[in-house]
Amino acid sequence: MGKEVAFEDIYVKYYAKMKRFALEYVVFEEDAENIVQDIFTELWGRWDTYTTHANLLAFLFLILKNKCIDFLRHKQIQQKISDKFKEEYLLTLQANYYALEHFDKNMFSEDDLSEIINKALLSLPERCREIFIKNKIEGQKQKDIAEELGISVHTIENQISIAYKKLRKELKNLMPLFLFLIS
Q: Which CATH architecture has domain 107-182?
């Protein structure tokens, strides 16, 4: 019997059973189908290795069990990461909500805001401040600043990133207002 015919016989005989087994553990039909299809793809690719087993059914279900375990482990890790991002996102939303709730537009006069922003800008290292002001306040392009200062555009990008990080710390709850004012 040729490889194609033997493979088709095994596929027809075991596919539905394997899919039902996988579905009991991985919950979604599409995932169960993908796992079983992967096993049959692997079986086809390593035909000579796998068909030498005396009890092919037991061997296929062992592979299936292991693939389901790997799938579930992977899903658990994905879920933990997703939960962590959701938790961090919720904390950010809560902090932003709190900041906006307590933001009093009358709390600062325009002069007070200018003073706070200037103080924050002055806290930046000199070169970092110069690059940030040229790009974000004066509106110069990064390429032009790089040519003027004789440094790479990558250095300009790094310095702007550093400036934002330091300004976030300095301005804390005022950062959205700062970004609004400089854009």
A: Orthogonal Bundle (1.10)
Query: Buried b vs exposed e over 120-135: b needs ≥16 C-beta within 10 Å?
Result: bbeebeeebbebbebb
Report CA dihedral (124, 159, 156, 114) to the nearest 10 degrees: -40
Q: Which residues of the chain have pLDDT under 70?
A: 1, 50-53, 102-111, 173-183
Place of tokens 């035909």: 47
Question: Residue 34 corresponds to which tokens in the numbers above?
Answer: 């993908």
The answer to whether the beta carbons of residues 40 and 15 sit under 8 Å apart is yes
pTM summary value: 0.51
Neighbours of 64 (CB within 10 A): 22
Q: What is the CATH number of domain 3-98?
A: 1.10.1740.10
φ, ψ dihedrals at 64, nearest 5° = -60, -45
